[in-house]
Amino acid sequence: MVERETWATRVGFILAAIGSAVGLGNIWRFPFQTATNGGSAFLVVYLVAVLVIGIPALLGEFVIGRRANINAIEAFNKLGRPQWAFIGAIGVIGSFWTLSYYSVVGGWVIRFVYGFGSGVVLEQPQTYFTEVAATGPDAVALHAVFMLITVGIVALGIEDGIELATKFMVPSIVVLLVALAVYAATLSGAGAGYEFYLTPDFGTVADNAASVVPAAAGQALFSLSVGFSVMITYASYLGKDDSLAADGLTIAVSNTFVGVLAGLVVIPLLFAANIEIGGELVGSEGGAGAVFVGVTSALTNLPGGAARVVGVIFFGTVLIAALSSSISLLEAVVSYLVDNYSLSRAPTAAGLGSVVFLLGVPSALSLEWLDWFDGIGVTLFLPLAVLFVVLFVGWVLGQEAVDELRQGTSGGATLSMVWLWSLRTVVLLAILVVVGLNFYDLFLTPDSGYYIVPPGF
């Protein structure tokens, strides 16, 4: 039996969990989800979703992981509820599925780091993404490069790979985003971006609740890495003396801060460049390439070599964030095979990475396929996994969950019970609404939104 690894330090776990949360979900998805869903209106709903749904669900995954002290699928067997093991399976499959197209986006980021460094991207800023970077053999090759880096980090293990890498990655992301936000604030026209982003318009929320609410809830769960079995896996490497509540709050606040900070970079850049939200470059539907086309077009207005420098810093930051999340998605799957079948970590990571690469090839060859993979991952796998986690922790574990949450924490009995009943009522109701709206989108809207049938079928 392979000896199970643990985090070397509590800080290592917190940074790894923040790294998982602070990824493309925050820097690729969040600014443009915000921009195309009403700006500050979306931001307000998103913050409420993080507080009401995200944090309680995150703590639920922590409780399962640490109490079982094993991977996300086997955890339910160890807790004496094998009939619920399908929850972990949904999350692990969701991680595998998401990483396949996530890696393609990671390849795009590598392309843009090089493109800004060489200056070639500035020669055709509005068409570089669609005509050069998005699809084709080069996109497949860079998808492979991104997966190789991810596999290499995971193969090194928890302490020497994931923990060590995220101790560098997370502080770097924050420092670079702060620098970019300060720079964006100096640009003429940025003030209009701040007004759009930070002045709440509750009328917009009321008029578009059916689209804004599920989008914000999905973004909250995606950006916290809830529903992918990642946080169950990471918490399984924890000791009993760690405070899950304190760690969860730290992770959620840090993740939300980075998401909001990313918006303070991207949206002022767009407004400073007079790029219309909902226009040709940043369409009403957002789109996988929105951050690449929008930010690149915005940066072309900068003088001299500033565009190249800021472009390299911005997309370099995105690359670090993407890797910090991709390693967690792969680890969720690797841990299952290492735990259950006593397989060696390095060849297991390499084998799984190869399968993920092959699954991602359609996304590297077609934007329609990538959008479909993203839609299925975010609107099907993720909310279903969260729904069943909430049901399991709230109504099956019950008092056991409260006892586990209180481990490593002095007092907090009342707050623990408030958390449990919030899972049983408010969170459960909220996630049921989100699942219902998502299923309507998936199964009943073939001409708009996401749809369950793949492209061309």
Automatic annotation (TrEMBL):
Entry GO terms, CC: membrane
Main location: membrane
InterPro entries, A to Z: Na/ntran_symport, SNS_sf, YocR/YhdH-like
Keyword annotations from UniProtKB, A to Z: Membrane, Transmembrane, Transmembrane helix, Transport
UniProt-listed SUPFAM superfamilies: SNF-like
CDD domains reported in the protein's UniProt record: SLC6sbd_Tyt1-Like
The UniProt record lists the keyword Nucleus: no
Pfam family, one: SNF
Membrane topology: Multi-pass membrane protein
TM segment ranges: 7-28, 40-64, 84-104, 140-158, 170-192, 212-237, 249-271, 309-338, 350-370, 376-397, 418-440
Compartments, record wording: Membrane
Entry keyword Membrane: yes
Name of this chain's protein: Sodium-dependent transporter
Organism of this sequence: Halomarina salina
Lineage: Archaea, Methanobacteriati, Methanobacteriota, Stenosarchaea group, Halobacteria
